[in-house]
């Protein structure tokens, strides 16, 4: 089976009992072992050995601390919120080229920190009354001082799926993809629908195919900015395609030989495969392993 998914496997204790206790939170911040993740905006700054960079808490830095958790030595790990007014480009992929410097555990820890810092930067005002909000629960919530509404970090569920038909699977490409690049089709889950319904709807809307027997495969947090990718497979009734060209530029059915050639990077491969970080590649590898 494929290797574990990127951005999963952070080993920190999220320490909810510390988040909700102001005294315990203050003690964690005062712990001489406490460290803070060094970020440039929301991109990580590589350490000397190529991994994440951590520093002791700077008392001169008045930005709020967000508790990431407690590591296996008992040391608290924090990240600071972005400066007020700073431009946080959550969808910037410039960090992608640096991610191979991180171990899987570090990438998972960084992904959570990145999404959390981004959420705070975009939720400084109350969605109920428009007044400023203040951080609470160790950075895992914001509370409005005017109407007392509480707001908590959210993830956006996205289904990403392979439709199967007689030992072939469907891959597609969006107009902005690099030349030759094809991937699994995907789309956001909408209010009032199950994951299975979202898979069926997206495949019909984007490719014009009807599917059944939707099966869950795996999930992956995707911190660009805060998605949860939910990988699935489904069985198509036939192979006839009707593409929504505003979403999908091209799509094609590929067999196991095609997928194997693409994953190996072969010059004769019919498409360029998703990168190792992406759950789309995991889905293709898992399908080959069946």
Briefly say what this structure is.
The chain is of the alpha+beta class. Helices cover 21% and strands 27% of the residues. The chain has helices at residues 16-19, 22-30, 104-121, 195-207, 256-263, 279-288, and strands spanning 35-37, 39-40, 43-44, 54-56, 65-70, 76-80, 133-136, 141-144, 150-151, 156-165, 168-173, 185-188, 211-222, 227-236, 250-255.
What does this structure look like?
With 290 residues, the chain is α+β, with helices and mostly antiparallel strands. The protein has two domains: 16-115; 156-288, Nucleoside Triphosphate Pyrophosphohydrolase. Helices cover 21% and strands 27% of the residues. It contains six helices and 15 strands. It has helices spanning 16-19, 22-30, 104-121, 195-207, 256-263, 279-288, and strands at 35-37, 39-40, 43-44, 54-56, 65-70, 76-80, 133-136, 141-144, 150-151, 156-165, 168-173, 185-188, 211-222, 227-236, 250-255. The strands form four sheets. Strands 10, 11, 12, 13, 14 and 15 form a six-stranded mixed beta sheet that branches. A four-stranded mixed beta sheet has the order 4-1-6-5, sandwiched between helices. A three-stranded antiparallel beta sheet has the order 7-8-9, with no helix packed on it. A hairpin with a 5-residue loop joins strand 8 and strand 9. Helix 5 (256-263) packs across helix 6. The protein is globular and about 60 Å long. The N and C termini lie close together (9 Å).
């Amino acid at each position: 089976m494929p290797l574990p998914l990127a951005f999963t496997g952070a080993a920190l204790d999220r320490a909810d009992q510390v988040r909700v206790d102001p005294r315990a939170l203050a003690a964690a911040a005062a712990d001489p072992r406490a460290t803070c993740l060094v970020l440039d905006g929301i991109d990580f700054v590589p350490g000397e050995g190529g991994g994440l960079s951590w520093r002791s808490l700077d008392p001169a830095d008045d930005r709020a601390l967000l508790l990431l958790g407690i590591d296996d030595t008992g040391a608290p790990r924090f990240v600071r919120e972005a400066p007020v007014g700073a431009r946080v480009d959550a969808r910037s992929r410039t960090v992608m080229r640096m991610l191979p410097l991180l171990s899987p555990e570090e990438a998972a820890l960084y992904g959570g920190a990145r999404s959390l810092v981004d959420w705070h930067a975009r939720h400084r005002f109350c969605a109920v009354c428009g007044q400023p909000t203040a951080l609470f629960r160790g950075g895992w919530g914001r509370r409005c001082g005017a109407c007392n509404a509480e707001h908590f970090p959210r993830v956006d569920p996205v289904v990403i799926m392979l439709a199967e038909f007689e030992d072939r699977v469907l891959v597609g490409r969006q107009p902005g993809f690099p030349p030759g690049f094809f991937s699994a089709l995907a789309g956001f889950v909408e209010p009032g629908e199950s994951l299975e319904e979202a898979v069926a709807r997206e495949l019909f809307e984007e490719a014009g195919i009807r599917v059944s027997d939707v099966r869950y495969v795996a999930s992956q947090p995707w911190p660009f900015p805060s998605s949860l990718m939910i990988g699935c497979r489904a069985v198509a009734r036939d192979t006839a395609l009707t593409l929504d060209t505003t979403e999908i530029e091209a799509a094609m059915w590929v067999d196991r030989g095609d997928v194997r050639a693409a994953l190996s990077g072969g010059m004769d491969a019919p498409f360029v495969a998703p990168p190792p970080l992406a759950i789309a590649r995991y889905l293709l590898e898992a399908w080959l392993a069946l």
